[in-house]
Amino acid sequence: MHSANKYLTHLAASASIPFTYVNRAGVYLIANDPWLQIIGKKREEVIGQTIQVALGEVVYGLIEPVLQQCYQGQTGVYNGWVSTANDGYRYYVTKMDPHFDEYGEFQGILAYSSDITEYIQQEITTENPDKIYFSVLSNMPEPMVVFNIENRKVIYINPAFTKLYGYSLTEIIGSDISTFRTWKFQEDKEFYNQLVAEGEVKGFDTIHYSKSGEELPVRITSVLTDFQGEMCAVNWAEDCRSLYEKEAKKKRLEEQLFQVQKLESLGRLSAGLAHEINTPAQYVSDNLFFLKDVLPDVSALLGETLATMSVLEQKAGSIPELVRLRELFEQLDAEFITREISTALDHSLEGMERINRIVVATKGFSYNGSDKIEANINDAIAKTITLCGHEWKYVATIETDFAPELPAVPCFISSINQVVLNMIVNAAQAIKMAGLDGKLGRITIRKRQVGGLCQH
């Protein structure tokens, strides 16, 4: 077999006509220079590639019936116009022979082509020009349709058109093209009016539809021609689905990148706001703690003052100044105020502690580093619960059951925070939609170490 491949390689190198060899999987093993010049590709771009990849799906669809003949052990021939890289359209006759090894096992397909363009061009001058014209169109790999520009009757469609759009010849030949959803003639009417007025090749991008309703983004090129005394438009369509898919994918990636950048900006803004809130909040907390610390002394002073006033009143009687002072104490209700101030300070300190927890949680949640860090997952979840309290506290309670012995986990902590946030918000919304008649639902978050993994 090795000697056979060596022989084929030598044959291809010495042949002056285009020559290729594909294995039984349809992968190119040999391609000589004349053939590579036709398709305008380098050898390394072809060898090792399948026929579909090297030539494209459209061309493969045209030669597939001939390939099937070879797979069944029969010689096949393909005649047609080929769009070459350097010489425009040329007419080739390509013979394909099945190749067998010494045991009669099918191994691949030998293909060699002959350029008979000059012969065909000579035939055009001696035969029916319309017959030759349609012969050319039928072998074009691009979907093509010919219709009367005035009455819009379809005169011809090629096999590539039926393959792309799904209509048969009998369904569309002779029909009014404007009645087919496939070809949006009414929407493109202005284009054809301009084509008639200027009489030159025109092109535009549009969306057509197959017979089954599939959306087909295409690039239409149209030219006017005189056919049997009738003004006709010859349209060929370039299938742009792969291009549109690439553009759509690019747009999705750009949108995702924009969202990431927006989240990063929001993270930096949140971290900055948390820092700005933290400083004055610390001032307030420190002052509240100071007042809490000195309040017992102030209360003791007020108590001592009241006791002293009572002694003075017994000894000195109704001194106007003492009477006035007693009235002020009774109006102020000093004991009540002292007791309520203590309660107010406790509540204020509790509120400042909640603010502090939110600030700390915001700082942790807004971390936008792109590298893995070792993070305390228990702490991260607790901060996230705090941060999104407004989403769940009116509809549910949250119970946490964290394994305390868990080590720090290398992870993208900002992604973990986002996932936990989404889970809590989704759970809270589900509870709200369930309608518990004013009762609070319950959200439970458990975390365990299973083997070397952290399991939620």
Structure explained in plain terms:
The protein has 456 residues and is α+β, with helices and mostly antiparallel strands. Helices cover 53% and strands 23% of the residues. The strands form four sheets. Strands 2-1-5-4-3 form a five-stranded antiparallel β-sheet, sandwiched between helices. It has a five-stranded antiparallel β-sheet with strand order 7-6-10-9-8, with helices on both faces. Strands 12-14-15 form a three-stranded mixed β-sheet. The chain has helices at residues 2-14, 33-39, 43-46, 51-55, 57-71, 117-126, 129-138, 159-165, 169-172, 189-198, 241-316, 320-332, 334-365, 377-387, 389-392, 413-434, and strands spanning 19-23, 28-31, 76-83, 89-100, 106-115, 144-148, 154-157, 202-209, 215-227, 230-239, 373-375, 396-402, 409-411, 441-450, 453-455. The protein has four domains: 2-123, 2-Layer Sandwich (Beta-Lactamase), CATH 3.30.450; 142-239, 2-Layer Sandwich (Beta-Lactamase), CATH 3.30.450; 246-368, no CATH class; 370-456, Heat Shock Protein 90 (2-Layer Sandwich).
